[in-house]
Specification:
Blueprint (H helix, E strand, L loop, with lengths): L9 H12 L10 H6 L4 E7 L6 H20 L8 E7 L4 H13 L5 E3 L4 H13 L4 E3 L15 E3 L4 H11 L7 E7 L2 H16 L3 E8 L7 H4 L9 E5 L2 H13 L7 E5 L8 H4 L7 E4 L13 H11 L16 H21 L7 H8 L3 E2 L10 E3 L6 E2 L2 E7 L2 E8 L18
Parallel strand pairs: 1-2, 1-3, 3-4, 4-5, 6-7, 6-8, 8-9, 9-10
Antiparallel strand pairs: 10-14, 11-12, 12-13, 14-15
Length: about 425
């Protein structure tokens, strides 16, 4: 399979094209001139949570990566070389993710891997990426991924939870009442969110009342909610995602726990859900987000790029998939979209030609700067060379008038903190 494009077999080219872009015919996607000049393909692997608890994240990452690969391949590829995409379902299971990562590298020969939003997968995959000497692009936001649990082979293309909650602290926490209770998903991301938010709440003079961690996939929250006294706090910080978050908010409201309580959280609470889905308990809640749901809230300088990105993934200006009417997961899927363009940029800047050039690629990624463009619709960013952590704009949204609306945004220069590690000391 790896020699299909090199050998110019029409049959295998058609098969590769179907995998890359879901196209029925080759001519409708790749210009003949591009096919004529294309050499050996660049193999990119993906470990997405296509099924399981975080499937809403994984399916949208899959949509975004496929759209980005199609865009790159129809616009000259990378140095005239096509991308061949290989996708594996982690089933939202860390051991499965590790097994699929190894299979992508050892059996399919991928050159780079784009990972899931599941921070547990990211952290567990980091040493595997180093062992197999394969650059890995993480999409989860637990702080540890780019601190003590990372290494020189992992890059994170999204603000981590510390940066996200710092943005929330700069804008929303100052407006809220002082007694805080925390509920988080019981895995790396949820615990990281609670830990980082508590730091900022304390810095703002808030009082920490308590915390509860709940396993992913919980259906009945009553055993946990029965142990929370809503009279003891004013603000509830929720670190949960997708269906778990919706069920939690609805059950908490039905049990009377959200009366006179303001809900604050990461955008994972609302991703993939319409405002009505969240129920009346979410009214007036605040969220820190990496990407606005509504195109009307995108800064003017980025609107044309946002429009092109939404068009490529089939999403309208309200953040809804045109074909199905489901709410898109824009705050996370853009990370997967941009990872393809970051790989392209670093390959072209470094002169990468094969896995033997991975050290040059990594050095190009360390300090990589991107500007708002079709490839980078989120806007300007920079990868810090020390810890491979991106820094970009962060938005604050609230539910108002039955819509998720941007209140303001915080620029990258306000979201920094001293790197805790310097991966550049590691030999390649």
């Amino acid at each position: 399979m790896h020699n299909s494009i090199k050998n110019h077999s029409r049959r295998t080219l058609l098969q590769a094209t179907a995998r890359l872009a879901g196209a029925a015919t080759l001519a409708g996607i790749y210009p003949p001139a591009l096919l004529a000049q294309s050499g050996k393909p660049i193999h990119i692997g993906c470990t997405h949570d296509l099924t399981g608890t975080l499937s809403m994240d994984g399916t949208w990452n899959d949509v975004a990566v496929k759209a980005a690969v199609k865009w790159v391949n129809t616009h000259g590829g990378i140095g005239g070389r096509l991308i061949e995409l290989h996708t594996e379902d982690t089933e939202t299971n860390t051991q499965t993710a590790l097994r699929k990562f190894r299979s992508l590298v050892l059996d399919r020969g991928v050159d780079f891997v784009v990972g899931a939003t599941h921070s547990g997968h990211n952290i567990a995959s980091a040493p595997v990426a180093k062992e197999l000497k394969t650059p890995y692009f993480a999409s989860g936001t637990a702080l540890e991924t780019t601190t003590d649990k990372g290494n020189r082979w992992i890059f994170r293309g999204v603000n981590n939870i510390r940066q996200q909650m710092k943005a929330m602290a700069l804008v929303a926490l100052k407006e809220l009442k002082p007694r805080y209770y925390f509920v988080g998903a019981d895995y790396a991301w949820g615990r990281s969110l609670v830990k980082e938010t508590k730091t900022y709440v304390s810095a703002e003079g808030g009082q920490i009342i308590g915390e509860t961690f709940i396993p992913l996939g919980t259906a009945d929250f009553a055993p946990y909610l029965n142990n929370i006294d809503p009279r003891s706090f004013d603000t509830l910080v929720v670190g949960m995602t997708g269906g778990d978050a919706v069920r939690f908010l609805r059950q908490a409201y039905s049990m009377g726990l959200l009366n006179n309580i303001t809900v604050v959280g990461n955008i994972a609470v609302t991703s993939g859900s319409s405002v009505p889905d969240l129920g009346p308990g979410a009214k007036g809640s605040w969220y820190t987000t990496m990407y606005p749901r509504r195109s009307a809230d995108v800064p003017d300088a980025l609107k044309e790029f946002d429009e092109a990105y939404r068009s490529a993934i089939g999403v309208d200006g309200e953040g809804v998939e045109k074909a199905t009417g489901r709410v898109a997961n824009l705050p996370y899927s853009f990370v997967a979209w941009q990872a393809i363009f970051q790989i392209k940029q670093a390959i072209e800047q470094s002169g990468w030609g094969s896995r033997a050039d991975h050290p040059k690629f990594i050095e190009a990624m360390e300090g990589l700067v991107g500007k708002g463009s079709i490839g980078y619709p989120q806007g300007d960013f920079r990868f810090r060379p020390e810890d491979h952590q991106i820094v970009h704009r962060q938005y604050i949204e609230t539910i108002r008038d039955d819509r998720l609306q941007v209140v303001t945004y915080v620029e990258p220069d306000q979201l920094g903190y001293p790197p805790e590690v310097d991966y550049r000391t590691e030999a390649l």
